[in-house]
Design goal:
This protein has 120 residues and is mostly helical. 72% of the residues lie in helices and 0% in strands. It is built from four helices and no strands.
Amino acid sequence: MNPEDLKYFKNFLTNRLDNLLKEGDRTVEGMADSSETYPDPADRATAEADTSFMLRIRDREHKLISKINKAIKRIDNDEFGICEVCGEDISMKRLKARPVTTLCINCKVRQEEEEKIKGL
């Protein structure tokens, strides 16, 4: 992969990481500020459901943050864009669609087929 592409992906991933961290901080601040009590059980249930939903989103984002950090390390180690299973280059189209990927499309399809057969 050429240096310009690596720079593009590193900038993209770094910006995405910064945005995710800021969102996480806002969520924590919002939860700390939301000491409101609800006398109506329906209102309380709605607030709890909203909080639960937000926490599930943040959990998914936390997992994405980990993948982004690993992708940035792969860029720094000149391993970015190389399939960890077969060692072939991952297509630019796939990297643009999912820059945190570690598998080429063929290995990913094979992995998903194996998971389907195992019922995972």
